[in-house]
Specification:
Elements lengths: L8 H9 L4 H21 L19 H31 L1 H38 L8 H7 L15 H23 L1 H15 L7 H13 L17 H18 L3 H5 L4 H27 L8 H33 L5 H27 L7 H24 L3 H7 L18
Helix pairs in contact: 2-3, 2-12, 2-13, 2-14, 3-4, 3-6, 3-9, 3-11, 3-12, 4-5, 4-6, 4-13, 8-9, 8-12, 11-12, 13-14
Length: 426
């Protein structure tokens, strides 16, 4: 049994000024966990050229999962990252903020990349060898014996860790900008703060969504494809970096006007439903776009119509994302007013799961390549099988070790290894 000391007046005051946002924590974790769903579903799409591994049993809903998640996941994640980044910067100060972000972002980016890139190369090599073995030879051990273990780092990209790479830019830019405004331009900072308050909660709140659309859309029109272009190389795609910076910046600024989080609880379900309806519309437009672009014989559109479709698609996607941000914020903060231990555990585990999941989303489906079963059922089973080892390794290898300190800032007692139940560890 653990004994919790009574909270001091200082800690009570801190909790009132800087409360724990369990709903936003949950949203951030879900956006990371959806990486498992997205990258596993990619192996079961019906278009082979979209992913390096293709399972022979495809699913008609795989493309739906992949496209819908791709539209909203990273913009919403960056809003949450900006909000919590500003919270840390405000509460701890620039020095501790820099050290904390170095531990949580830079170290996992550098070390994780050197660990994960070979694992991904080997997973792809195994998948290729296992798919091209002589007829009748479906042995997993045989594929291991035939594959090569060499790794070529020459043209290696950031993989799924590109979001950490972008976060380094954002934390540096917004932290330095905040310091400069505080030290050198307080009148300008006060003016900007007044403008933001008026837009978020004041007289101009009815123009909140149109203003966000105006600042979000210009860079979206510079993309080569609908939605966001993919970051494949280490050289940043500056339009993508800038487009996601808008979402991160909104999250950063909103922390300083965090009364808006409570205000968004009103009409939250209406906003969420509207965002989901527009998301479905955006997906329909995206499917038409991809068909017209890659299969022009099935959807014949001239260049002018294709350009209009692109513009309309980008507008609908951005509108749906902001409505989902508003709706999810209000709904989740309403649902998670107090800490839930199961949800908290998944929040803590989500970072590790996202960092380590990509090689497994190739390797595990490749191991079951010759399992003859409906593609949709197989896809969901693979999602579960990918998640299980990630949760086990988090619990036994990360949660109670120095890895847990790096990824979550503390080392948790790990039941049953500690002999204490989870209920007594907090």
């Amino acid at each position: 049994m653990s004994i919790t000391p009574p909270a001091s007046s200082e800690s009570s005051e801190a909790s009132r000024v800087h409360p724990r946002y369990h709903g936003l924590d949950f949203i951030r974790a879900v956006m990371m966990l959806l990486g498992v769903v997205l990258h596993t579903a990619m192996s079961f799409q019906q278009h082979e050229e979209l992913w390096p591994y293709q399972d022979p049993e495809t699913s008609p809903v795989a493309g739906f999962f992949a496209l819908s998640i791709h539209i909203f996941r990273m913009p919403i994640f960056f809003v949450m990252a900006g909000f919590f980044g500003a919270m840390l910067f405000t509460r701890k100060g620039p020095a501790i903020f820099a050290g904390h972000r170095f531990d949580r972002i830079v170290i996992p980016l550098v070390i994780g990349w050197f660990v994960l890139f070979p694992l991904l190369v080997w997973a792809l090599a195994f998948a290729y060898i296992h798919a091209t073995q002589p007829a009748g030879d479906h042995s997993i051990l045989g594929a291991f014996r035939r594959m090569t273990w060499s790794v070529d780092f020459v043209e290696a990209g950031p993989m799924h860790l590109w979001f950490l790479y972008y976060l380094v830019y954002y934390y540096a830019f917004f932290a330095v900008s905040t310091l400069v405004l505080r030290k050198c331009a307080r009148p300008l900072l006060s003016f900007l703060s007044g403008c933001v308050h008026s837009i978020s909660l004041g007289a101009l709140r009815w123009f909140r969504l149109p203003i966000l659309m105006v600042i979000s859309l210009p860079l979206m029109f510079t993309m080569e494809d609908v939605g966001f272009d993919l970051q494949m190389d280490w050289a940043p795609l500056w339009n993508v970096l800038g487009a996601y910076a808008v979402y991160f910046g909104v999250g950063w600024v909103c922390y300083h006007h965090r009364e808006i989080v409570g205000a968004l609880e009103r009409f939250a379900w209406s906003r969420l439903l509207s965002g989901l309806i527009l998301l479905a519309f955006a997906m329909i437009l995206s499917f038409i776009w991809y068909q017209a672009l890659h299969e022009p014989e099935s959807v014949a559109l001239d260049d002018g119509t294709l350009s209009i479709l692109f513009v309309v698609n980008q507008i609908v996607q951005v509108l749906s994302v902001w409505l989902l941000v508003f709706g999810l914020t209000g709904v989740c903060e309403r649902m998670f007013r107090k800490e839930n231990r199961t949800v908290r555990y998944l929040v803590d585990a989500s970072y590790w799961i996202y960092l380590m999941h990509l090689p497994l989303t190739i390797f595990i489906p490749a191991c079951f390549r010759y399992w003859d079963i409906d593609g949709t059922v197989k896809m969901f089973v693979m999602m579960i099988l990918v998640t299980i080892p990630l949760l086990l390794t988090y619990h036994f290898v990360v949660r109670g070790t120095v890895l847990g300190v790096v990824l979550s800032g503390r080392r948790y007692p790990v039941w049953p290894l500690t002999g204490r139940s989870p209920a007594n560890t907090e």
